[in-house]
Structure formats: C-alpha cells, structure tokens
Amino acid sequence: MSPPQPRPGLLTIAPYVGGESSIPGLTRVVKLSSNESPFGPSPRAIEACRRAAQNLHRYPDGSSRLLREAIGRRHGLDPARLVCGSGSDELLGLLCHAYAGSGDEVIHTGHGFLMYGIFTRSAGAIEVVAPETDLRVDVDAILAAVTPRTRVVFLANPGNPTGTCLPAAEVRRLRGGLPESVLLVIDAAYAEYVTRADYSPGVDLVDAGANTVMTRTFSKIYGLGGLRLGWAYCPPAVADVLNRARSPFNVNAVAQAAGTAAIEDVAFMERAQAHNSRWLPLLSARLTAAGLGVTDSVANFVLARFPTDDPARGADAADRLLQSRGLIVRRVASYGLPDALRITIGLDEDMTAVADALTEFMA
User: Model's pTM, two decimal places?
Assistant: First the structure.
C-alpha cells in the first residue's frame, strides 16, 4: 500500500520565505527586510497585551466584536461587514479557497505578492499572471487575461515589492471591465502610508457592489506583525462566506486586544506616517543620486535596482556589503526582480547607514 498522497500540484508549490532577520556572526543587526514599522507597536497596544495575558486560559471572542467595532469607528465602516483574520494572509487564502477551485482561474500581476499564487495552487485553481508595465499594474493586461473560467483577481495596491500605486480611477476601470461574477480582491496592506490624492484603498468599490473585497493589515504601520492580525471589508454575502469558512477562534485574544488599542491610538500612527513621508523621498533621492534606479514608491519601502552588466556592482554584491555592516534588506529575485533590493524605511540612523553604504558601493 502507498502512503497518503496530497492533492496533485501541492508539492510543486515553493514555500513562502520571509525576509531574513539575522546574520551569522553578528549579534546586532538592523532588519529592513520585512516592511515592519521602525517604531514598533503603540504603547497602548503593548499595555493591552499585558492585560489580555491575565486571561489566556479563556477562549477569545469568536467574532472579534470589539475589534471590528473599533475598526468601524476609525474608518466609518459597518462592523457587520468586517471580518478579522490571523493576518490579512489568512483572509486572502480563505477568499481564494471559497471562490476558486479545480479548473478555475485566478489572476494576479507579474510582481504581485507571492502568496496569491500559493493560495491559488493550493486551492487547485489555475494561476494566471498578467504582466506589469514598468513595474506598474497594467489594467488592460489584467482585462485581457480574463476568460470565462476567471473567478478571482488579486490586486495589491500599493504593490509589493514595487511600491507603485494604481490611481483610484484605474481601479474603477478595472472593476468596470471585469465580469460581475469575478471577485476583485484589493490588498491594501500599505494604504496608511499613501499620501497621493488620487488613491483610494477600495472602500468605495466595496460599497458599490457585491463583488469587491478590500483587505488590510495590522502588520505594517501598526507594528503588530508578530501577532498576525488583519481584516477585510466585504459585501454582506462575502462576509457571510468568510465567517462560514474561517476557524471559530481564528484571531487570538491578545491580538484582538492589541489591535483594538492600536487603531485607537491615532497620534502614534500619525507619527509613523510622518516619519515615512519624510524618509521615503529622502532615501529615494540619495539612492538615485548614487546611480541606482528607484521606483516611485508610495509605501514604506523603496525598490532599488542595480546594474546587470557587472556582477561586482549587482544586487547580490550590494546585499553582501550591506550584510557585512549589519544591514538586512530583502532580495526579490523570487518576484522576478534579480537585479533589485527592497529596503524598508527604518529609523533615521538606519536610513543614513544604508544610503552611505550604497553610495560608497556604487562609487
């Protein structure tokens, strides 16, 4: 008899590998590889964790009611249409498994979040990649990829690892060009960092119909990546599906308490926004002056592109130099960008160190 076998295709999936967090031989490193907030979580969130720890023997609220109500107050949304998850990753996966299956097609763009493809294949569906143009989402390419078998379209806006942004008018054009039966999932993990007037995270499209979902995360600007917490704003019918598909206690009690406190500490979040708005153009300008190609990022990271004609001045060599100085950034060859490094906006001294090192490297 043969041992149990997984569904065909599962063993072809390359597991997701997160950003590095350590360097052999170094005890102090600066981690700029995972787009984490340099300020960490709000002190209010930390205190909420301490209080919640007194009741770890109790099951959490299965509906995350207090957290959903806090999110609703902050963003002016109906809590009944919010679903919380163990990171927005969990919700993206649930949406894929709920709305796509064997023989169905799921579309994402060429440099979209790697988990879109992993979730698609784990659901037994067919991954369809729409090419980007100059590291930007191409709405026409997505629409050209749609077939009668298309069930879901994943759109990262802003994009990761590119940092580029699709204006609200283009997202509306995408939604208008998709069949009514196709679910558009707008992954707005970096929405809080965007200052462009022509950007929308997608609330308007969710409110406009029954076929668009917006997902958000507490892992970035709120500094709660270690607790795994995200949320989705959905049409009522989609919220009902997610609540049927998710685990009964999918968000732990500590994460619920911390998220509720974090989203209510507006001043702390605004401090992180202001720091990012100051350093994003500064770092971009310094890297550009050093001779690197830099995308017009609106998120909390920059994508720096290195020469490809000389390995000694390429992305891998630059990464080795940075690591020798205790600076960890993200290689993005797995995203089809072997010539690039993604650099998270960190503290003042971290940004100065990175910019100085890469200026020296390129010189």
Answer: 0.95
